[in-house]
UniProtKB/TrEMBL annotation:
This is Alpha,alpha-trehalose-phosphate synthase. The chain holds residues 4 to 485 of 736 of the full protein. The keyword rRNA-binding does not apply. It catalyses: D-glucose 6-phosphate + UDP-alpha-D-glucose = alpha,alpha-trehalose 6-phosphate + UDP + H(+). GO terms for molecular function: alpha,alpha-trehalose-phosphate synthase (UDP-forming) activity; phosphatase activity. The lineage of its organism: Bacteria, Bacillati, Actinomycetota, Actinomycetes, Micrococcales.
Amino acid sequence: QPDQTHPDDVYSMVIVSNRLPVDYDEQPDGTPGWKTSPGGLVTALEPIMRAADGAWVGWAGVADREFAPFENDGISIVPVPLSEDEIQEYYEGFSNDTLWPLYHDVIAPPTYHREWWDAYVRVNRRFAEAAARAADEGATVWVQDYQLQLVPKMLRETRPDLVIGFFNHIPFPAYGIYSQLPWRRQVIEGLLGADVIGFQRQADAGNFQRAVRRLYGYTTRGAVVEVPEGDDVRRVIARHFPISIDAEGFEQLARRPDVQARAKEIREGLGNPKTVMLGVDRLDYTKGIRHRLKAFGELLRDGRLSVSDASLVQVASPSRERVETYRQLRDEIELTVGRLNGDYSTISHQAIAYLHHGYPREEMAALYLAADVMLVTALRDGMNLVAKEYVASRFDEDGVLVLSEFAGAADELRQSVLVNPHDIEGLKDAMVAAAEMPRKERARRMRALRRRVRDYDVARWSADFLETLTGNATIRPGVRDD
Ligand code: G6P
């Protein structure tokens, strides 16, 4: 049972994100409980928050429930309630059926509804108020991701004493796409309330700066956006800070004898094929799962791979299951997997092991160790931490990472086998090349990849961001360090 904290406690560091690191998880018999939430954001921020004495403000993942603040696994949790209507309009609607597809290069068509926008404004205000209540005088508030882009401005208006950071975990699209958004000015204005706005890739920061120039005409110099404020100019920094993982933690996990034994067991369970290929994604249309299955299916059809020497494990964790585009995607993927298994599996070898579940970190590390080829074929992805987790787990300096150019991780992980997932022939060739790559080349590439992931881990990422934030906030007008 989590410990209660006092509802009026204030903190010098406050993280605000739509989803808390834990989701409320009630047993069928009504027993209350909490489980780890899905997605990259939580994966990245959890270790930092455990180290800092801060509070995490966010939603518990269920409708119409109010929870008092409590402590979970060394983190102070401040839940923000959402009603069923707000979940539909702010979360499933505006966040995940307007912004998500728009920011991921309209892979799926975004839907624009004025009611959804109104709910987005309303809910952003509630998060801003909750953050303001939890923040001590002069505290740092770090707002996360596309669901809360209006919070920086709302916070600055009510609490000019705060140091405000924002980090966008997903891509920021080119202006030609962004400009579709009927509320494009309000969103930019919301973000510019922050002292520092962080993006995954340099290209994302560039797209944002361009949108600022086009919509507001403000001057940008390098990473600095000059925001006029009365007679003064407030400097906002907008630049890239590529997010990472707890690389050391993943390596430790992978080195555990029980995890290694489990990796062996996984391979045996698959009938010990020569090559195990692995995909690990939230079940999302941005991840390129269909393209991956198509390529794998054609390789089996053409006899370039056979089920006795190659098997694909696809972990697709459930996500946003009430949003129509996600339902359709699930149906399509499950139809494709069923067909391919029907056509190519034998009694002793399954073509595709499809798992519609999320798994704990231990099981993930075992899967990474068991996989000769890791397939990250996203059509668009802010970073993709799965790619980094795979690399961090491979202390044996083996395994090949096939990585989409359209994932943020491609900027750093240059020694992977880079692919354009839209090019099915190219993807097939890359998969075969990965399966056949000589040991020496695998090791050479993996060593280089590991160096990068170890050097620039999530602790470096947050330290970089927070140093930039403190540095910039001290020179803003009205805030002096004397
Ligand atoms: C991505 C987003 C996060 C989000 C996560 C899970 O990683 O950047 O903001 O929390 O997906 O999605 P969900 O909608 O379940 O929170």
